[in-house]
Design a protein that fits this description.
4-stranded antiparallel sheet; about 35% helix; alpha+beta; 3 domains; 7 strands; elongated; 3-stranded antiparallel sheet
Length: about 180
């Protein structure tokens, strides 16, 4: 009975995942911290296709991952956000960054990427339905390949010393709880 509930739940979640698209996020106004300790207020919002960061005064900013500082944004040659030479909270706000929007050409590329992603998801859903129908017609189980990424960070321990590391624990739980192994 537990196995049947697990399989039904698993199939429901897999099927549902084909209908999941970009997830939006909005931090609201929060405190941001520069590497030198200077703080400023701002928010970040968007999804995996289009993302904004803006100070509480309306100036767009972007992080420079080379030095770790947040800079007021300008547009690069492709029409997307790029760091200016002015650091947020340290230099005076850069007028060009006020409510800056990406170029229309760049936004069109973003929408094209969204549409391509949606098409891939639809194709995967159709393939899943076809495999499911074939398996049902042949009275056999549908085979799935699932990729799992496990990450361990040096500053966050997820297990006590002497116990199994996360990957070994995860794999051992699959074998211990599955009647198929």
């Amino acid at each position: 009975m537990k196995l049947q509930i697990f399989i039904c739940t698993f199939l429901f979640l897999v099927t549902l995942s084909f209908y999941v698209f970009a997830v939006t996020t909005d931090t609201g106004i929060i405190e941001w911290k520069q590497p030198n300790g200077v703080t400023f207020m701002g928010r970040a919002w968007g999804d995996e296709f289009r993302f904004y960061m803006e100070t509480d005064e309306g100036y767009r900013f972007i992080k420079n991952y080379v030095d770790g500082y947040y800079y007021y944004a300008v547009l690069d040659e492709n029409g997307e956000f790029a760091p200016s030479e002015y650091k947020v909270g340290i230099d005076q706000p850069f007028a060009e960054s006020y409510q800056l929007e990406p170029s229309a050409a760049y936004l069109e590329q973003v929408e094209d990427a969204r549409a391509a992603f949606a098409a891939q998801v639809r194709e995967a859903g159709l393939e899943f339905q076809q495999r499911q129908a074939e398996a049902f017609a042949n009275n056999r189980a549908v085979e799935y390949s699932i990729g799992i990424i496990l990450a361990e960070f040096k500053d966050v321990k997820h297990f006590k010393s002497g116990s199994l590391p996360p990957a070994a624990f995860f794999i051992s739980q699959i074998y211990l709880r599955s009647p198929h192994f």
